[in-house]
UniProtKB/TrEMBL annotation:
HAMAP family: GcvH. CDD domains: GCS_H. It comes from Pleurotus ostreatus (Oyster mushroom). Keywords: Lipoyl, Mitochondrion, Transit peptide. Its main location: mitochondrion. The H protein shuttles the methylamine group of glycine from the P protein to the T protein. GO terms for cellular component: glycine cleavage complex; mitochondrion. Belongs to the GcvH family. This is Glycine cleavage system H protein.
């Protein structure tokens, strides 16, 4: 390998130079931790410690139990919520179910797509069917929620 590099530099020394007009941007390395936790009421929160935002969803288990979702009621942007408060509702062909805030904070964004496509909660409950994003007021609340194994055990027993 070294001999190839030497040969290239003998015949074309500019091949080893980095052009002055490169578009390289120096950025500091950042560590981001995303933690996913669950409630016994079948909501989940994916908390990004870099942004302080938690993405709220219902779980796959919840959407299976609900059946075909036909309507989703979401909170208003800017609303301050406390952990355990009702923040919305989901209606399906089988039942209606309230949605509770798994964490405290301020509603920063809602998934507007759910108003015209409530079935996204069935197709992709923990990804494209996210409900809202909350700016957490107390990030330590996340650690008090259930991890994946504890959540699974909560409904299997």
């Amino acid at each position: 390998m070294q001999s190839i590099v030497r040969q290239m530099s003998r015949y074309n020394p500019s091949a080893l130079r980095v052009p002055k007009h490169t578009n390289l941007i120096a950025r500091p390395l950042a560590r981001t931790l995303v933690t996913k936790r669950y409630t016994v009421e079948h909501e989940s929160v994916s908390f990004d410690d870099a942004t302080g935002l938690g993405v709220i969803t219902i779980t796959d288990h919840a959407q299976e139990a609900l059946g075909d979702v036909v309507f989703v009621e979401l909170p208003t942007i800017g609303t301050e919520v406390k952990q355990g408060e009702q923040i919305g509702a989901v209606e399906s062909v089988k039942a209606a179910s309230d949605i509770y805030a798994p964490v405290s904070g301020t509603i920063e964004e809602i998934n507007e797509t759910l108003s015209s496509e409530p079935g996204l909660l069935n197709k992709s409950p923990e990804d494209k069917g996210w409900l809202c994003k909350i700016k957490l007021s107390d990030p330590s609340e996340v650690e008090k929620l259930l991890d994946a194994d504890a959540y699974r055990a909560s409904y299997e027993n």
